[in-house]
């Protein structure tokens, strides 16, 4: 090992959307800080953030049914939907700022307007969707949402899904034009390109093998150059572990007490992808259905229009599966080496409690091509096998920890774990994911740099106009900001700008 050591203000581990976002925020807030990035792959955005490894949905709860839960009294709880929507507003505002300030020259390189829809069949599902629509559409964050249980209108909204469909049970959908398709891979690369031009040291093919506190109180990383095999030490005052699925191992290596007792469970994803232009042209929406029994919330099936490299394609899935790897390009020993004395009981408890999930994942893993096509035909009744190919997507490592609801609870959200002194933070979990990168990285900033927040507030408000306010409490401000953000990003404004008939007629 080379005993020379470099020192810097900030080290970002991993070149995914999270590190890209944190680096971009910090560069705007304190341009004079030295930032260094280490990434084990040969380019940025190669793991979960890559456009082929995720579904590219700008999650705002416009279509994802799992964010609205029916209560025992029959009412719909929309609090999670509001939270997810507000978080995505933050992302859009920051991206609009980056466009206005010239960091990103063309928003079309990473974001496109694509209507978001929910689609259900069967009496109880239709009743749920209607109640969900009634609860959401009166809320300013969801303005412009339409509902229909009229098959003729659905044929206009989703011709591919209605063609050759036998409608022998109630059927309904909601639609909102302000949905988005986001190319998180392209966005990650755009952000890192800009950072690199602004003196951020980017080190690809460099893997962080270890993290320890040194005698000066700095975090010292052992970094391996995967091309030459050389190992060097790099020290920093602040470290962000943005390793995606690789974060848990690195957090454990740091030894901070906040990282103890936490385990991870990997769920892999597969999409069926269609490039046939004739089929692709018949569908223009992201359409989310209902999850199967036992399915984890992020495995809700959906049929999505995607825009990648200016070319439209359709994605269907994700089909879940099990692989012991924590990263798509990880090791088969990832799961086993993440089990430590401090999380063993938690992991065993999770194994015993999640029988339904295990059963579901094994079932998904065993699916044949014909069975996957059958699932697709629930959405596209006349889907032909030759039009659809299977693509392996990213890995999502779900957090396992002891919570108030018991030992070994599987969590489906994301969580920022940081040291008490704010000198190191890691992001674990993967849902709602990349869409919430800005609000999650603002959480990292507020947890790790509380002493600077007051001074940074004016700049934070300039970058994210709704920072520190609840948009829901200020509908006029929400409309104003949304209109401005949509204009800058080339999106469809949510405030009743829909061109597909009015709500009341659609309801009839
Ligand atoms: C199937 C699927 C569908 C999804 N759909 C959506 C969606 O529709 N919308 C949405 O918002 N989100 C979605 N997500 C989630 C989203 O992709 C992730 O939340 C997001 O990309 C995570 O970004 P990240 O930067 O944390 O991790 P990543 O993009 O995985 O980046 C982590 C990086 O760290 C590197 N790394 C790891 N360990 C080390 C190490 N030791 N040394 C150096 N480098 C290291 C990796 O190589 C990688 O490049 C989906 C995810 C999956 C898997």
UniProtKB/TrEMBL annotation:
Pathway: Carbohydrate metabolism; tricarboxylic acid cycle; oxaloacetate from (S)-malate (quinone route): step 1/1. This is Probable malate:quinone oxidoreductase. It comes from Paenibacillus campinasensis. Its EC number is 1.1.5.4. Gene3D superfamilies: D-Amino Acid Oxidase, subunit A, domain 2, FAD/NAD(P)-binding domain. SUPFAM superfamilies: FAD/NAD(P)-binding domain. Its cofactor is FAD. Belongs to the MQO family. Keywords: FAD, Flavoprotein, Oxidoreductase, Tricarboxylic acid cycle. It catalyses: (S)-malate + a quinone = a quinol + oxaloacetate. Residues 489-508 are annotated as: Disordered. The lineage of its organism: Bacteria, Bacillati, Bacillota, Bacilli, Bacillales. It holds the Pfam family Mqo. The gene is mqo. GO terms for molecular function: (S)-2-hydroxyglutarate dehydrogenase activity; L-malate dehydrogenase (quinone) activity. One of its GO terms (biological process) is tricarboxylic acid cycle.
